[in-house]
Amino acid sequence: MKASDLMVKCLEEEGLEYIFGVPGEENADFMMSLEHSDQIRFILTRHEQGAAFMAEIYGRLTGNPAGCLGTLGPGATNLITGVADSNMDRAPMLVLTGQGASTRLHKESHQVMDVVNMFKPVTKWATTIWHPENIPEIVRKAVRVARTEKPGAVHVELPEDIAKLKIDKAPLPVRKFRRPVPDDKAMDRIFDRIKSAKRPIIIAGNGCIRRRASKQLRIFCEKTGIGVVSTFMAKGCVDMDAPYCLYTIGLGAKDIPACAVDASDLVICLGYDMVEYHPKLWNNGRTKPVIHIDFLPAEIDENYHPQLEAVGDLAHALWMLNERVDKNPGAFSFDFTQQNAVRRDMSAELAKHKDDNTEGSIRPQKALWDARAVMGPEDILLSDVGAHKMWIARHFQCHEPNTCLIPNGFCSMGFALPGAIAAALINPDKNILAISGDAGFMMNVQEMETARRLNLNLTVMVWADNAYGLIAWKQDNEFGRHTDLDFGNPDWLKLAEAFDWHGHWVDKSTDLQAALKQCFAESGPSLLVIPIDYRENNLLTKRLGELTCPI
Question: Where's the Thiamine pyrophosphate enzyme TPP-binding domain (predicted)?
Fold first, then answer.
């Protein structure tokens, strides 16, 4: 068989289900080999960036990698934004690129560039297959590295002449092992330190959305009552209706949930990625004692210098804490006055605009209240990047992990539509809602054709303000004005018609819930556009600037 045949067999052995991408001449042999696979489905996309975002969402939702594919040169450069987003947001992914023949890579040659070195800064590992007999080892290592905590992207390049070579090899068998667990003595010290606290608080990061970790975290909070503030990417790690859920932290400005952190005498960071929410925003000058429990040691930072640390499987670490809680009944004496006040006040904030009756534009708070009211606990919302992301992070709360997907490490616009395509492929029985600004939506608008071709049931809600709203918001905050950030938009209903989508325009707030229900009931993709009232941006900034923490 050819080397490209062997590579497909190795990917099948690893359990790969999807490869998203745009083929080219230099990976033609791989594509011909892939055509014979009964296991791996190739999804043809309209741009390589969309393919990378689709593979990212597959990885975030399943914990296993999908492939994203591009050819050499511009195909590879088009992939890199989505690959960087996946890697920084801890999603396993295989990046598969073609390359020119190995006989011409040493010199100036058509479309040839050093793709591997380009991908090294945004992947966990990047390599070229120079010898076909190495394919089983390289694929086995690539998938293992991509899945190993913290997960991320891995790049494998296959030159076109190597893909054609004959080879008689078999895939390596897949063997998975349990992750290392924290040391017992470290967990004893952490338990004793928690016992001595009066107002502990948990900051839950991206690592807490793993199903086992979320389960053990909920058990720990039920036993102790300790409140949880979640980063944007940890939404749903505890149920929004639980009394210990203190909602979301991560805005640049101080928000109500941050008051619970201010009042705490111990911060327990679980699965926390500094890339999401920098500790200088909540521990400037190291005023708070910190415990770090995660798959990896703490990053070195002057504002994040843990007193105690436990490194290893996060779910197991929480199980170890739960065992110690059970063996020490009545060990805790906590004061949850501030925690309860934070939950009370933030709950009131979330419900403040649920009964809005406006026409001409719709407040962000109302749009998200209605989305939450219509969507079930297991349904999935995907956020693009823009001003809407800040509102989603603050106002859309979750019952289950991985039901609100926000890019918050690399923060790339254009994420939501392709991400929704992958989510709908994986979860055809769930309601899938992508929320995007008009700017972010138009960055990958071509994937509307992909969604229609696949006949997927998904809804994209576009918040239209005809401008780069988040940039305007930030410039207003810093300079009191903003530069020219306005742009034009298409006729949204004609755009939907052109791509054979269902199209809806809603500018009356009392009609929004019904429109969302209609979209979810429709067969195939639906576009729902609302004129958004971003006057609320600066109003929120003003209110947060005047915030007095509840007591």
Answer: 384-529
The 8-class DSSP code of residue 66 comes to E
278 and 410 housed in the same domain: no
Predicted TM-score of the model (pTM): 0.95
The set of residues, in sequence order, having a beta carbon less than 8 Å from that of 113 and lying 6+ positions away, is 72, 73, 76
- DSSP-derived secondary structure for 77-105: HHHHHHHHHHHHTT--EEEEEEE--GGGT
> What DSSP line would sit under 351-365, residue for residue?
HTTTT---BSSB-HH
Please provide residue 70's backbone torsions phi and psi, each rounded to the nearest 5 degrees.
-150, 165
Structural domain includes residue 176: no
> Along the 551 residues of the chain, how does pLDDT read in single tens digits?
999 999 999 999 999 999 999 999 889 999 999 999 999 999 999 999 999 999 999 999 999 999 999 998 999 999 999 999 999 999 999 999 998 777 766 767 667 678 999 999 999 999 999 999 999 999 999 999 999 999 999 999 999 899 999 999 999 999 888 888 999 999 999 999 999 999 999 999 999 999 899 999 999 999 999 999 999 999 999 999 999 999 999 887 889 999 999 999 999 999 998 888 889 888 888 889 999 999 999 999 999 999 999 999 999 999 999 999 999 988 889 999 999 999 999 999 999 999 999 999 999 999 999 999 999 999 999 999 999 999 999 999 999 999 999 998 888 999 999 999 999 999 999 999 999 999 999 999 999 999 999 999 999 999 999 999 888 888 988 899 999 999 999 999 999 999 999 999 999 999 999 999 999 999 999 999 999 999 998 888 888 888 888 76
Whether residue 287 sits in one domain with residue 321: yes
Are residues 491 and 454 located together in one domain of the fold?
A: yes
Pick from 381, 392, 482, 495: nearest CA to 448: 495
User: Which tokens is 346 given?
Assistant: 């933030």
Helix (H) or strand (E) holding 405: strand 404-405
Distance (Å, whole) CA 475 – CA 347: 29
- Concatenated DSSP letters of 157-213: EEEHHHHHSB----PPPP---PPP---HHHHHHHHHHHHH-SSEEEEE-GGGGSHHH
Nearby residues of 381 by Cβ (< 8 Å), 6 or more positions away: 371, 375, 392, 396, 403, 404, 405, 433, 434, 435
The closest of 160, 153, 174 to 51, measured between CA atoms, is 153
We report the CATH number of the domain holding residue 456 as: 3.40.50.970
Q: Which two tokens stand for residue 353?
A: 């605009």
Residues 491 and 381 in one domain: yes
| The two three-digit tokens of residue 546, written as one number | 């005047």
Q: The tokens of 380 are what?
A: 């999935």
Kindly state whether residue 177 falls inside one of the protein's structural domains: no
Per the domain annotation, does 174 fall within a domain?
no
CA–CA gap between residue 478 and residue 321 (Å, rounded)? 44
Handedness of CA 245, 248, 254, 255 (dihedral sign): negative
Domain containing residue 399: 352-545
Residue 456 forms part of a structural domain: yes
